[in-house]
Design goal:
Layout (H helix, E strand, L loop, with lengths): L1 H31 L3 H12 L17 H4 L3 H10 L22 H12 L27 E4 L4 E3 L8 E6 L6 E9 L6 E9 L10 E3 L8 H5 L1 H11 L3 H4 L2 E5 L6 E2 L4 E5 L4 E8 L6 E3 L2 E6 L6 E9 L4 E2 L6 E9 L3 E9 L4 E9 L5 E7 L10 E9 L4 E8 L15 E2 L10 E8 L1
Parallel strand pairs: 9-13
Antiparallel strand pairs: 1-12, 2-11, 3-10, 4-8, 4-9, 4-12, 5-7, 5-10, 6-15, 13-22, 14-21, 15-20, 16-19, 16-22, 17-18, 17-20
Length: 435
């Protein structure tokens, strides 16, 4: 018995020592596990809190641990699925300056953090909270132009597009480095287009013509100058009344900050026209949207201009699950494409832009295989695309008008062009410089 007792005591000691050793290792392992303060907050601050903060488009703030912790599992799932941050272009990382992507390491960090109980960590390791100008992502604007009076948005019903004239009050010509449209009540503002007209000035011609049904080859040469001039007059952005398009906001779009050496020109005395699409939400609201500008410090090397091209003849059959609609333009001057903005409504499924050069070479310059109406994006090229005169840009949109499309308002109807979301569009915004 004494020997058995000694053996039991020895075994017990070994077991206790083993447990002590194993428990001593756990803190070392857990210290390597991601924490919110040290590892996750920097990722959120770099990629998420522009939208996920009070007053912005996202439904919750992720600035503090207390705000983010209840959504740890949801954050992990969205990140692993690739639905957050919302980015829909299929391209090599670095193709666009405004990419919303997480690296593989960042995704792994968030997954490990959520899977290990989403620990807070040492509060002393928290990074500094980003400083945002109140209400603006571009910083404090140098000038703000706002609707003179609030617009009363009804609680129900279809609301036609509204147009508001807003003076810039610029007493001298301005070069614009950044521009942001700020909805007054974001919940009821679906989108805003801003046009700028210079009093007494004719709209400058765009460096392209529609080529949806044109002959092959340089259409400007084949049609002749008189026909080209007539077409130009028809396709200018809303004619001379509203002037050229200078800015857009829609669900998911970013404010536009032009790259160094590029800026937008707005002449003294220019008047803005805001085209606002309101959507009733069941609650009456008063909206007073505005536009903020940051001025360039010096004249740019290149003037940035914006325009659009469309196919308003679209007809989508009932039940069609992959219906294709094209629009195409041909460039009449050497140009650089700075950004592209694909826009369809609830039946929009995918987009692809193909550029064909005068020598016949073709390349896909933008592919959006899973278009999301709720997250629309101006895709800003890190290196603007050089487009020689005679090149053609083909925009291909596909639509899902079937019952498999959960967002489809009515799969049993034929769909045509229209302003409202239950109708459709095939619209491409284009930002460019002319060589």
């Amino acid at each position: 018995m004494p020997n058995q007792l000694r053996l039991f005591t020895l075994l017990s000691g070994l077991i206790i020592a083993s447990l002590a050793t194993s428990t001593a290792v756990v803190p070392a392992q857990s210290s390597d596990r991601p924490t919110f303060s040290r590892d996750v907050a920097p990722i959120l601050y770099r990629n998420c809190v522009t939208c996920h903060r009070p007053g912005e488009i996202a439904p919750m703030s992720l600035i503090t641990y207390a705000q983010a912790r209840p959504y740890a599992r949801s954050i992990r799932e969205r990140v692993e699925l690739g639905t957050m941050p919302p980015w829909h272009a299929e391209a090599v990382p670095g193709t666009f300056v405004n990419e919303r992507r997480l690296s593989a390491k960042e995704k792994e960090t968030i997954s490990l953090w959520a899977n290990n109980g989403a620990p807070e960590g040492d509060a002393k390791e928290m990074p500094q909270v980003p400083i945002f100008a109140e209400g603006w992502t571009i910083g404090k604007p140098d000038a703000v132009a706002a609707m003179a009076e609030p617009f009363n948005v009804p609680s129900a019903g279809t609301i036609d597009y509204q147009y508001f004239s807003v003076p810039t009050n610029f007493t001298e010509d301005k070069w614009i480095q950044a521009i942001e449209i700020r909805p007054g009540v974001r919940s009821v503002v679906h989108h805003v287009l801003v046009f700028a007209s210079e009093p007494g000035a004719a709209v400058r011609p765009q460096p392209f013509l529609p080529a949806n049904a044109g002959p092959l080859g340089p259409i400007a040469q084949q049609l002749g100058p008189a026909v080209v001039a007539a077409i130009r007059n028809r396709v200018q952005n809303a004619g001379t009344a509203r002037g050229p398009l200078i800015a857009t906001t829609a669900p998911g779009t970013n404010a536009v900050i032009f790259q160094s050496g590029e800026a937008l020109s707005i002449k003294a005395g220019s008047v803005l026209t805001l085209q606002v699409h309101y959507t009733a939400t069941g609650k009456a609201e008063q909206d007073r949207s505005s536009v903020g500008f940051i001025f360039a410090k010096e004249p740019p090397k290149q003037e940035v201009r914006s325009a659009s091209f469309i196919n308003a003849q679209l007809v989508i059959p009932p039940g069609a699950d992959n219906h294709r609609v094209d629009s195409q333009i041909e460039f009449t001057e050497d140009t650089h494409i700075v950004a592209l903005f694909p826009h369809t409504h609830l039946r929009g499924k995918s987009w692809e832009y193909r550029l064909t050069y005068p020598d016949g070479r073709e390349e896909i310059v933008l592919s959006v295989p899973h278009y999301d109406f709720n997250w629309q994006t101006y895709y800003e090229f890190a290196k603007p695309l050089a487009v020689p005169k005679g090149s053609r840009l083909l925009a291909i949109a596909h639509y899902d008008n079937s019952a498999n499309n959960k967002a489809n308002p009515n799969p049993g109807v034929e769909v045509r062009w229209g302003d409202q979301t239950w109708q459709e569009m095939q619209y491409s915004g284009i930002t460019y410089t002319v060589d």
